Amino acid sequence: MTVTRPFHMTPKAYLVAERPDDPVLFLSPEILAATARQFIDGFPGLVTYAVKANAAGPVIENLARAGLTAFDVASPAEIALVRSIAPEAALHYNNPVRSRAEIDAAIGMGVTSYSVDDAGEFAKLVEEGVAPGAEMTVRFKLPVAGAAYDFGEKFGATPEAAADLLRAVAKAGYRPSLTFHPGTQCTDPAAWVAYIDASAGIARAAGVTLDRLNVGGGFPSRRMQADTPPLEAIFRAIDGAVARAFGTSRPALICEPGRAMVAEAVSLALRVKALRPGMVYLNDGIYGALAEQPVMGMTDRLGVVAPDGRPRSGAPVPRLIWGPTCDSLDRMPGAVPLPEDMAEGDYVLIHGMGAYSTATVTRFNGYGAMRLATVRSLS
Ligand SMILES: Cc1ncc(COP(=O)(O)O)c(C=O)c1O
């Protein structure tokens, strides 16, 4: 991804000046900083950022500038990236399956916090030399609904196995913590409450006082125009549940939002390559920044702009949206209402696109080149 500098005022000003033929992501540092502030002020504990949601250098840089002092990292490459931008930041290596080479790399870069969900993976960390005193955060799972898709199929010990692991971790001299992930785009505060209640039960069963409780990511972003993500209600529910479940042995809390931290700060501009009756062909699709749309449902937060910057305002006509590759999987779900006066060369501006967009772009069919432009305002 090419990062363009300096600042432009708005996406429209950039599109009119540059007429880009590749997709462009527009980043608003102001919105990113405001979202970071909302988490720091509202969440009753340490706020970290899940780098995987968007690992662009300017995103990490702006979050560190906004006051984030800790990051959730999934791989040595993410560790090295954050170290190069925010060398003092605390790093929580919370991908619970790692190769021995990955563990060695993390130790070499000074990581002292790891999640584990299995005795074999804990043994690997010990054998590779993670020193006692480091934090071992046991990850567990519950059959809880409320998210767009569930993460429990892949990672997490059962509560019973988590209690055994927590006991083993504490006995071996590591700082015992617990974590869970309610699943991404989780809109129901009750999911966190169920996990927090279970956390207290696991700590009790293990006979261990928790050092910290990491309540994961999963916080929702505004995917549809009608959405109002209930962040404050989730923060209140977490605070209340921890007070009720842990009483006087309340652990310090951590959260690690990815999606909710970065989604709103980025809009995506795609170019209309061609129009056919009932269909539009764009310069990006499921192998690029729109990869999540077929999984999560097509967002309706979009508008069409002519190359001279005028918004297209014709009556909405439902159209099938195709991406640029040569296969017919590369299409958006459903028929999307788009203005009848849109034309070849126009731009489709899609909002709320900061998370899991650039992060998963492929070069399939030779596409996937993208620019990131920093703007003062997204409107
Ligand atoms: C351990 C961990 N923490 C946090 C996140 C971020 O989740 P979200 O983007 O739903 O907030 C993920 C996502 O995969 C994760 O695996």
* Helix-strand pattern: EHEHEEHEHEHEHEHEHEHEHEEHEEEEE
Q: What Rg is obtained from the alpha carbons, in whole angstroms?
A: 22 Å
Under the CATH scheme, which architecture of the largest domain would be assigned? Alpha-Beta Barrel
Number of domains: 2
Question: Terminal Cα separation, in Å?
Answer: 23 Å
Low-confidence residue ranges: none
Task: Please give the largest β-sheet.
Answer: 9 strands, mixed
The CATH C-level name of the largest domain is Alpha Beta
**Which term fits the overall shape?**
elongated
Helix content: 25-40%
Pathway: Amine and polyamine biosynthesis; putrescine biosynthesis via L-ornithine pathway; putrescine from L-ornithine: step 1/1
Domain Orn/DAP/Arg decarboxylase 2 N-terminal: 43-263
Cofactor: pyridoxal 5'-phosphate
Protein name: ornithine decarboxylase
Explain what this protein looks like in three dimensions:
The chain is an alpha/beta fold. It folds into two domains: 2-26 and 264-375, Lyase, Ornithine Decarboxylase, Chain A, domain 1 (Beta Barrel), CATH 2.40.37; 29-262, Alanine racemase (TIM Barrel). Helix content is 30%, strand content 22%. It has helices spanning 11-18, 29-42, 57-65, 76-85, 100-108, 119-128, 159-171, 189-206, 231-246, 259-262, 293-296, and strands at residues 2-8, 24-27, 46-47, 49-50, 70-73, 90-93, 113-116, 135-139, 175-179, 212-214, 252-255, 266-276, 279-282, 302-305, 316-322, 336-339, 347-350, 371-375. Strands 1, 2, 12, 13, 14, 15, 16, 17 and 18 form a nine-stranded mixed β-sheet that branches. The chain has a six-stranded parallel β-sheet with strand order 3-11-10-9-8-7. The protein has a three-stranded parallel β-sheet with strand order 4-5-6, covered by helices on one side. Strand 12 and strand 13 form a beta hairpin. Helix 7 (159-171) crosses helix 8. The model has no long low-confidence stretch (mean pLDDT 96). The structure holds pyridoxal-5'-phosphate. The active site is at 326 (proton donor). It comes from Roseicyclus elongatus DSM 19469.
